[in-house]
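Case study B.
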Amino acid sequence: MRVLVLGWEYPPAVAGGLGVACRGLTTALADRGHRVVLATPRLEGAPDPEPHPGVTRIAIAATVEGDARPGRALPLDPYATDDERAASTERGAATQRLYGRDLRVAVDRYTRAAVDALAETEFDVIHAHDWMTVGAALRLRFQRKRPFVFHVHSTAYDRQGGESRGRRGPIADVERVGARTADAICTVSGHTRGVLTREYGVDPGRVHVVYNAPTEDVPLDAPHATPHAPTVLFVGRLTRQKGVGFLLRAAVEVLRQRPDGRFVVVGDGEERARLVELAASLGIARRVFFTGSIDDAARERAYRTADVLVLPSVSEPFGLTPIEALQRGVPVVVSDACGAREVLSSAPSVPPWDAPQLAGEILRLLGDPGLRDDLVARGRAELDELSWNRSAASLERAFEGVLAAER
Amino acid sequence: MTSLVFYFQVHQPYRVRPYAYDEIGRRHDIFDDELNEFVARRVSERCYVPMNELLLRAIERSNGAFRCAFSLSGTAIRQLEAWVPEALESFRRLAETGSVEFLCETSRHSLAALADPVEFREQVDEQRRLLERTLGVSPTSFRNTELIVDETVARQVRELGFDVLIGEGAHQLLEGRTARALYGMRDADGFPLLLRDFDFSDDIAFRFSNRGWEAYPLFAPTFIEWLEALPQGDPFAGLFMDYETFGEHQPEDTGIFAFMEEMIDLAVRSDRLDFRTPSEIVRTERVVEEVVYPRPISWADAERDLSAWLGNHMQRSAHDAIYALGPAARASGDPSLLSQWRDLTTSDHVYYMSTKFHSDGDVHEYFSPYDTPHDAFLYVMNAIEDMRLRLGVDAARP
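Model:
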């Protein structure tokens, strides 16, 4: 099969899970013998996508000013919410506005340039990742008469923290049009299929769940070599979606019972100032450390000195950090609203907003090394069931379905 | 005759460097030496050296009739000693004229008077030794950090043997009375209080270069006319301001140096004005009335209270976390560790964490080396955590 992949971020330039998942699926499709063309925007200052045998990259002009380095946030932030753009005096609002405005311009340029840049490219099916590529996918579908499979990694609804007003706004509109006009839809979880069904009115029969998977093999070599305080880790963007405020409220109870404990919050985002102030007002600032965005080595150290990873999201399409944590021998607690929970049934899960229950789960894990080992072992066994190759196989079935419908 | 009591505050903190979480327990240098040296050199070049020279010449021209007071924070003295010794030398020359009084304060420009009486006493002793060693002076007047005063502060200062305390002539204290009189503090055995006349002081310190001010541009003869028009019964006017006003906050091209030079000469020649220092005032004037502090009062921001340093949760968290380590730091027996901890007690660290908006927020931002108050907070909290580990203080201790 000849697959045209319309992507946005792609390693080594990644801001979140989208780029990692796009690479996982794209390379697995190539490894399974498909001829893959990867069309991603050319971003000023951003490195080119990693090459892979069987993947031909075509750069689409979408240039805007910016400084994107590996491991840093992209200047074009695919996770920007409509609200961020409207924010005025919050920290980084100027930056967000700038990137927000640039993102619109860049998406427009990408959409217009894609049709020309791909005029000579032959393909059987279009595989388009998230809302930024929907415009280009629809034009190509119309002009080239090829079916379009829309892969949804995240929705405006999730990014608004699971509030229904996330259904409105220009980005949600693009997502809705994409989901309603695509020949088939793939989502990273049953959770996201539910969001599309509930919030966007999509027929669930057209949605295929294609789970994310671990990307690399991480050797589990003495993860906790040095003694350290009992440590609870969060890794992710500091947005409302991630529910870190809920973790901080649980931290109050955890620290009351384990005053030697510490919470490490890795990542940055528009909620940072509010969360830092919240930790201070809850009286736990001495035991809560905000690292900001950190490089891979520091992130690795953060995992290696953690006893529990928490993903407290209020609405999370998938959530790759529980996988990263389990690979490094760190047990996880997730919220019910995380897609990853569907593949990690061994992980304790709590309803979003239920800080007391979250505190209880954290304390149980901090106090019981045997339980931690057990949950890591069970979680890793579940991870063994996941692979990008298997996910690509599911994706193939979605492609075959739309191609069969054509005939 | 009204005496002009000039007191200039010289202060530089040891600013904390962007101290990352990942460095806790691995790197123990917590201050931004490069930035601190840069600022010390720049402020010396723009302000301390030229302004000291100007004042020295004014003292010589007037045969000592021009008099003023200074307070130099210990952190500023140590930075000048290390990086700009010629600037410290020029302060020493001023001390040698006999026309300049040096006030005492805490050696680390700290809030210890409110937070930790033991630490306060030690920092005052340390400052006395530092002033004796570097400038050859033994102060008798006291200025607490940012003019923060209440009865608790005054009682401690009195016990340490000082004669007078410098304060802000705030509305909430005076309630309509003049700042140009010597007051006593009722609940501190009438301890003498020398107050700042913030109208006249801020004409120079804040409004001088403000083009929107109705008196702009202010010339020396006008300012002298205003002072000469004061009631004859006003014994003095306290003109207290940051020394960095001259050449740093008000750059040279605003004409601030020429203004000061001419204003001093005009006042020296005036038959209605002269100059005295705080210790001269307290020796010659009687306390006219006793006042009661409703709460601690400072010279900062519109509120003139503690909100510039302890106004939000971040500031209070950091303040508490710093002082919680005091007993362990003093008991550590490690002079360099103790000194490093003491440099964390400098009030600027929490000042940078202020989230006040409006005009005062601008002032905080002007002084801050950090992008946001939250950055300032997180860097300091990381540095405190490293210090806690080095001191072996149990995290579980409340």
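Residues 85 and 98 of chain A are 9 Å apart (CA to CA). The remaining cases will be described in the next quarterly update.
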